[in-house]
Amino acid sequence: GWYLRKRRHDGGIKFDDDEETLTLKVSMSHAVRDDGTKASTKDMRSLSGGERSYTNLCLLLALGEVMSVPFRVMDEFDVYMDEAVRRAAIETIVGLARELPNRQFVIISPKELPVIPGLGTEAVRAQKMLRVQRDN
């Protein structure tokens, strides 16, 4: 839940080896019950597309840390995110890339990158691909 908590959300994973099940639980910061407590869900379909995308990104980043993979490739992870969530997601990835200089992060997105501190430095570079010219 550390990556989720960066946006004041919360979450967790429960593995049950005997039952061979995996249960995810997510609480978004804006989801509040009538009594004022945070509402949570185990059904990811109840989240918006952007919330699901951000939750998936947080899960993948956490799994990458546990597995200590040397590189992470994310293709169009931000397609369903609104600009505020997308910016927070990219800030999270850039921050992690700066903290882990021995790891590589490859992000592929059809969208323009926002201006983020640390992006464009020697440690964190952005490469914009040229548009493909097609012959008709």
Describe the structure.
Helices cover 29% and strands 18% of the residues. With 136 residues, it is an alpha+beta fold. The strands form two sheets. A two-stranded antiparallel sheet has the order 1-2. A two-stranded parallel sheet has the order 3-4. α2 (49-67) packs parallel to α3. It is globular, with a radius of gyration of 17 Å. The relative contact order is 0.12.
Main sheet: strand order:
1-2
How many angstroms separate the termini? 49 Å
As a percent range, the share of strand residues is: 15-25%
Query: What's the order of the H and E elements?
Result: HEEHEHE
**Rg calc:** 17 Å
Largest sheet at a glance?
2 strands, antiparallel
How many helix segments? 3
Helical amount: 25-40%
* Category from helices, strands and their pairing: alpha+beta
Determine the mean pLDDT.
79
Number of strands: 4
Unreliable segments of 5+ consecutive residues:
none
Shape by Cα distribution? globular
Structure summary:
This protein is of the alpha+beta class. It has helices at residues 2-5, 49-67, 83-99, and strands at 10-16, 21-27, 71-75, 104-108.
Topology:
Elements lengths: L1 H4 L4 E7 L4 E7 L21 H19 L3 E5 L7 H17 L4 E5 L28
Parallel strand pairs: 3-4
Antiparallel strand pairs: 1-2
Helix pairs in contact: 2-3
Keywords:
136 residues; alpha+beta; two-stranded antiparallel ribbon; two-stranded parallel sheet; 3 helices; 29% helix
